Amino acid sequence: MAEVILQTNIAGTSPKHGKVRDIYDLGDRLLIAASDRISAFDVIMKNGIPYKGIVLTQISKFWFEFLADTVENHLISDDIKDFPEPFCDNVSQLFGRTMLVKKTKVLPVECVVRGFLAGSGWREYKENHTVCGHKLAAGLKQCDKLPEPIFTPATKEELGAHDENIDFDRCVTIIGKKNAEYVRDKSIEIFKKASAYAEKRGIILADTKFEWGEIDGKIILIDEALTPDSSRFWPADKYEAGRDQESYDKQFVRNYLESINFDKSGKGIELPKDVCEKTSAKYIEAYEQLTGRKFTFKS
């Protein structure tokens, strides 16, 4: 069994802990290690999901390579031999779950693209037929496919706070008109390309979140790309509008927390063993279905 939560007591290092990732600042580069921690409703649960960090890293790597001719990304290497000391000596902790990346100035918005009416978008739509400033037609059902993908940005809040959905004008205020137009257009472009590919693999990409950073005057794709943590993936053969969908992502955990009336704030809870195991299986299934490769990282 893989480590459930990445241990980061590597001698002489001091990582910055995110919700899921531990980030080591190497000057002009970063080392990003994806742990098995899981957050839902912006709250980190007490226990993790086995192999989750490896799945996130390997799916991101797949998409970075798939989208390389469309958008530049921050990946330098995921080969531990390329990591500086002492990281290159920590194969057991870092193998499969770690990337050496370019260090950028992060744009402080979450770039969400929605192709279907789900999640917070569905909740807002029920109130006034809008989603983040987009006026939509009346009569749409939960999880309906939208005529065209829409860009629905959100703020990037500090750990423990909830991100806030915003409209495009607010996005312009935060990062400037030129940058906002670029990340909007490029996010929609790569969403469409990824959606078309995923559909061929029997998966619906309902929505996803991209993050962007600026380096040498260019804006590039950073963090993770189209993973079960940043996206809603649905099995195409089980899709039916008007209800919640089965999913390959952490919606499984969200649904469990909803079923026990989790208050979506404060400290996370201990997830039951069966929820962790089923969620792990979903993550691995997503990797295998999307990439067409066998998941071979189990020890």
Account of the protein in words:
The N and C termini lie close together (6 Å). Helix 1 runs parallel beside helix 7 and helix 4 crosses helix 5. Strand 2 and strand 3 (29-34) form a beta hairpin. It is built from seven helices and 16 strands. Helices cover 30% and strands 24% of the residues. It is globular, with a radius of gyration of 19 Å. The longest helix is centred in the middle third of the chain and has 24 residues, at 177-200.
What's the end-to-end separation, in Å?
A: 6 Å
**How much beta, percentage-wise?**
15-25%
- Structural category is alpha+beta
Give me the CATH architecture of the largest domain, please.
Answer: 2-Layer Sandwich
By CATH, the topology of the largest domain is D-amino Acid Aminotransferase, Chain A, domain 1
Q: What does the overall shape look like?
A: globular
- According to CATH, what is the class of the largest domain? Alpha Beta
Low-confidence stretches: 1-5
- Strand/helix succession: EEEEEHEHEEEHEEEEHHEEEHH
Largest sheet: 7 strands, antiparallel
Q: Mean pLDDT across all residues, rounded?
A: 91
Give the full name of the CATH homologous superfamily of the largest domain.
Answer: ATP-grasp fold, B domain
Domains, number: 2
